[in-house]
Amino acid sequence: MTESSASPVADEATDVFMDHRQLLFGLVYNMLGSVSDTEDVLQETWLSWTGRGTGGITNPRAYLVRVAVNHALQRRAAISRRRETYVGPWLPEPLVADDVGAEDPALRHESVSLAMLVVLESLTPLERAVFVLNEVFGYAHTEIAEIIDRTPAAVRQLAHRARAHVHARRPLYQAHPRVRREATERFVRAALGGDIAALMEILAPDVTVWTDGGGKRRPAGLRPVHGRDKAARLITSYAARRGAQVMDLHYRRVNGDDAAVLFEGDSPYAVMVMDLTPEGDRVSDVYIVTNPDKLTHVHKDEEEAK
């Protein structure tokens, strides 16, 4: 077959794939919690798609979702092996607005919060796939059964276990965006200003601070810190050692929530995401990602106001 005769077919395959790329990115990212692994899975999906050819496929969307989800399930094994030797707490790779992978508003809406991704890490790969497909993207159990090659009854059981586990660790509630923004700004002002009294007011008594430096940032805790007193001391001492007052602070949307991003010059230094109590008046969890490998998609916008 000549190049000219193959070109229309290749162009059609490309157009169909790109039409569904945002959906595939959202699905896979929520299953893996990693932008770089998601991009690798999308590349594998693309190769599977073009290698098979589009002939005879009556529902390209269903086909691509099935291929992507199953590639993502295979990728979980490699991620689990990396986790075994990871230094310190592991947090998902934040999806920061203005990232290459987060340009589309619909995609940002479909990505669950960083706090929820942490909870999803405790599910089995199949439970997580079912939860994401059903709870986040609205797929029916019968559709999911075809995607992961299980019976509808098995999918219902997986969905029930996943939903019960997630809701037990993270009750369903949604603070008003204005409340989230105000709490985020209060926390950041107190943290970067070293104001322990203000931190004690905004932190919940049983707050937990997670710091993911991947062994590449010092200092970074090797385990989560629990309790308001310890958390306040850790945060203020950390800010003092880093000279936080000379860093550039930008408020961004991270996985759909208000968050803070700190830059050293033009390079991202940390992404800070706060999760609130059900009442919305205290910070229940603080997630700080400083591992530079997880911040490669974060870029500074010089025109953005601090």
Question: Which residue ranges are poorly predicted, with pLDDT under 50 across at least 5 consecutive positions?
Answer: 1-6, 99-109, 302-306
Distance between the termini: 57 Å
Q: Tell me the helix content.
A: 40-55%
- What summary fits the major beta sheet? 6 strands, mixed
Number of strands: 6
Architecture overview:
The chain has 306 residues and is an alpha+beta fold. Helix content is 53%, strand content 14%. It contains eleven helices and six strands. Strands 2-1-6-5-4-3 form a six-stranded mixed beta sheet. Strand 5 and strand 6 form a beta hairpin. The longest helix has 30 residues. The protein starts with a helix and ends in a 17-residue tail after the last strand.
How are the SSEs ordered, and which strands pair?
Layout: H1 3-32, H2 35-52, H3 60-84, H4 105-110, H5 114-120, H6 125-136, H7 141-148, H8 152-169, H9 177-193, H10 196-202, E1 203-212, E2 225-226, H11 228-242, E3 248-254, E4 257-264, E5 267-276, E6 283-289
Parallel strand pairs: 1-6
Antiparallel strand pairs: 1-2, 3-4, 4-5, 5-6
Keywords for this structure?
alpha+beta, disordered N terminus, 306 residues, 11 helices, single chain
Q: What is the gist of this entry?
A:
It is built from 11 helices and 6 strands.
